[in-house]
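Hey,

Quick one before I head out. I ran the complex with guanosine-5'-diphosphate overnight. Inputs first:
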Amino acid sequence: MLDRTSNRPKLPPEIARRRTFAIISHPDAGKTTLTEKFLLYGGAIQMAGQVRAKGEARRTRSDFMQMEKDRGISVSASAMSFDFKDFRFNLVDTPGHSDFSEDTYRTLTAVDAAVMVIDGAKGVESQTQKLFEVCRLRDLPILTFCNKMDRESRDTFEIIDEIQENLAIDVTPASWPIGRGRDFIGCYDILRDRLDLMDRADRNKVAESIAIEGLDDPKLAEHVPADLLKVFLEEIEMARELLPPLDQQALLDGTLTPIWFGSAINSFGVKELMEGIGQFGPEPQPQSAEPRAVAPEETKVAGFVFKVQANMDPKHRDRVAFVRLASGHFKRGMKLTHVRSKKPMAISNPVLFLASDRELAEEAWAGDIIGIPNHGQLRIGDTLTEGEAIRVTGIPSFAPELLQGVRAGDPMKSKHLEKALMQFAEEGAAKVFKPAIGSGFIVGVVGQLQFEVLASRIELEYGLPVRFDASQFTSARWVSGEKDAVEKFTNANKQHISHDHDGDIVYLTRLQWDIDRIERDYPDVKLTATKEMM
Ligand code: GDP
């Protein structure tokens, strides 16, 4: 367990001001809208609406992106950096669809906290729950934003209860809504004793905020209609009795989440949330690694690849490796050691993803996300250091749950297909297995939709129509153990053996019974459903 206490060593100011986080939500809860407003207050864009506009311009580039848009999902993760007050925010986008959960998991290894957006009328939805569980695996601190309070929403206590019950996390209100639905007028900022009033007429206007001296301040009655005030005062008293206060350590441990109520589209509650992320959202945290953890305050640079995106520009076969800096102060042109190959790499064109553009990163600090264009040397899970042989851990690869055979529509193009498949395997978009016997490939994914995305990307990016067909296998397990034992095992089970894109041995089967039998018959051979990327 990493030391995520609030009394870690004091970080250099440039690192201490960084907040690196992701937003998790069920589709339609308002993640995009909230992101737009973040960027708006981050001064990164002039007018809200540009993320979408920009996103659409980018998406029209290919039908794959069109498909993504039609289905209302976002499958391509990216990072955005912007300043807010004294803070530098690095927002890492997570794919929203459950079929991309492995990608999401890896993305979440690169952040120090997550903002969970829920719809005030819907509460905790299926995808919120799934993503939350991924965060829990990593004990990530969570800050919650309850959105769409301008519309008919559920009772505040009911929302809080649902989060506590379904997600097994304590909730502390950072703000409290006054009035509901049409009568919603704004929130009481519990942390700073202010009354924030929403302006329904101007969606881009920041709320009027009035300092209040405690709940018996007569100023409340000047701004809040009597009937709403009465209900509010009752509720807030009950909330104080029933709900825990904000405890920084519990937040860092991931056992307590503060909740802000607001309306992203009305720019309401967003600034308060951002201030909360600044004030309570964790500073860059230590990173688990072998043989030792990496602390952000270390002066030497270390970073790891959590995502590889190929063909960002289909005209150039470029690839960008997204690197989370775990420690130190990076400067452009630095020579870093690529730990897996032990080779030096001069990082001459690192990219910073500012809200509206990519820009050369002249420097970056622990907590930042930089993009490193490369020709395939950098893979997910790779570590870059100033020489020390450290390997970041905790970036797993999961056994796929769906397997299909894949063939090029044109048999003459099989070599091309192999290249395309390897590319996607390295990007982490799918698992690709080459059976020991016979030709062709077997592709493994977590969700059905990934097959469709893959087929359309292979066609668009490589000009190769492909066909997927049923595979006789349904499960895959990585094989490990002493060389002799593994050899004996593979020789006796040739028809089940394949290799993944790293050349590691994989056992394919359709029966759990097979897996149990092997565990019995070959005690020296280990079958695992996850593999650490390295
Ligand atoms: P995402 O799928 O989570 O990225 O959600 P979007 O940001 O695209 O929002 C989904 C829909 O909800 C869009 O039509 C938004 O305009 C709308 N929406 C977002 N925030 C609010 C809000 O605070 N109030 C209301 N009434 N609608 C909102």
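The first strand starts at residue 18 and ends at 25.

Talk tomorrow,
K.
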